[in-house]
Amino acid sequence: MLYFNKYMDKKDIYEHLAKIYLDASSNKKKKSRIIPGYARNILLAAIIFVFAAGGYLLANYGKNPYRSEIALVLLNDSAKINFHFDPAKKEVYTLDLNHLNLGRFNTIGFHVKKADQRDIISLRVEFTNSFREKSEVYVRDIPRRWKDYRISLSDFKGINDWSDITALSFTVEEWNVMENNGVVYLDNVRLIK
Description:
Elements: H1 10-33, H2 37-59, E1 71-75, E2 79-84, E3 90-100, E4 107-114, E5 123-129, E6 134-139, E7 147-152, E8 165-173, E9 181-192
């Protein structure tokens, strides 16, 4: 509380009030610069989170199987190879490629799964060109859940000319299955650059 002496003149009163005011305003500035404990902890946690997230993203860069790719999709709906080997010896699902030039592609990719967990199935993947050259690669142990397979076109050794491909076939053969009947599903068949 302020107590003024009757002998103080106006100048002394103004100086006294100015001193009190300036002392009070400098205390406010000092207090506003100090970060309370909880705010400092939140700020520190946010900085740690940003660095941890950045480190995780850098460590896993390029490991995402669903990263974007340049591809020509040949089959975007699920296809079903329903095999029953009583008189038949193989079941084939063929995509007509209509003399497609595959020279600019280097990989074929597709998703595949089987219906029966107990069955052991291998799938033959085969390309044919207009010169009747054929080459196949086997995919062994088809899983019960969807799995993405990628096969380099250089693994198809019997094809010399990739400029005029007529067909892509997926075949289930009697000697590559344990059971005589079952189902294999295909999806997302694509050629990847």
